[in-house]
Amino acid sequence: MRVVLVGEAMLELSQDGESWQLAYGGDTLNTAIHLARAGVDTAFLTALGTDPFSADLKRRWAAEGLDTSLVLADPLRNSGLYAITCDAAGERSFTYWRNDSAARQVFACEGIDDALASAAQADLLAFSLVSMAVLPPDSRDALLALARKVRERGGQVTFDGNYRPRLWPDAPTARAARDAAIALATIGLPTLEDEVLLGSTNNPAAVAAHWQSLGCAETVVKLGADGCRLPDGRIIAPESVLAPVDTSGAGDAFNAGYLAARLRGEAQEQAARGGHALAGWTIMRRGAIPSRD
Fold first, then answer.
1. 170 tagged catalytic
2. What is the pTM of this model?
C-alpha cells in the first residue's frame, strides 16, 4: 500500500531548559514520518527552499524512510519556522514565521504536474485543514481535485479537520473548506476541540453525524485525554492516564497509529488503541516528532 501525504513542513524550535533544539514538524509531516517508521511506503508532497536548512530537512526525512521524491524546490522561498512553548502541564502553544514559506506555493513549483500524477496513483491520500489553509484558493481546488482522482481510482482519502484560526480569514470560510474535503474523504479524523472552535457542536456523536452525512463513513472523533469515538459510537480510552511533557503532535501520532493499523487490516478498535499508544509515546517526549529511542 502506498500512502501520500500533502502539507506544510517547517523547522521547529523546542525549548529544553535554557536551550532551544532545532528539529522539524508539521501536522501531515508528523503523520508521514510515523508511518514511514512503521514500514508503510509513504511519500510527502510539499515544497522546500534551496537553502541549507531545507536540504538538511530533506536528508533527515529520507533517513527516516520517507519517500522524498515528491518534495519540490522553490528557489525564491525558504521553509517556514515555528517555536513550541509548553506550560507546566505540557500543554503547548506555537509562535510561527510561515507567511512566505515555500510550501504555500507548492502547486506553482516546477515539477508539480509529475508530482500530482504520481500522487494520484496512491492507495491512500491524506491531508488536513492546515494543508488547505496555507494554500491560495486555486491551489486548494487543485488539492481537492487530486483527492477526487484518488477516489475515482478506488483509493482512499483521509482528512483531518485540524483547525488553526490564525490561518483563516474567518470560521465560515474554514468550515466551507472543511466540508468540501469531508465530502471526498473515506476516513475522517476530526478533533472535538477543533470542531468546537469552528462553531460546531461539542457533542462527539453530532460531529460524527455531520461528517458521515457528507459521505465520510469511517469518522473517528478524537477526544484528547478521553480517547476517541469510533464510527459505531464506542468510546475507546487510552490504556493509561499520562502526565505529558509536550502535547505537540499528539493528534498527528494518533492518525499515524490508526492508519498504519487499518492498512494492515486491523479492526477499528485495535487501530484506535494503536493510535493511542503512539500518541502516548509522543507526548512523553519533547517536540512534535521525537527521535526514535
1. no
2. 0.93
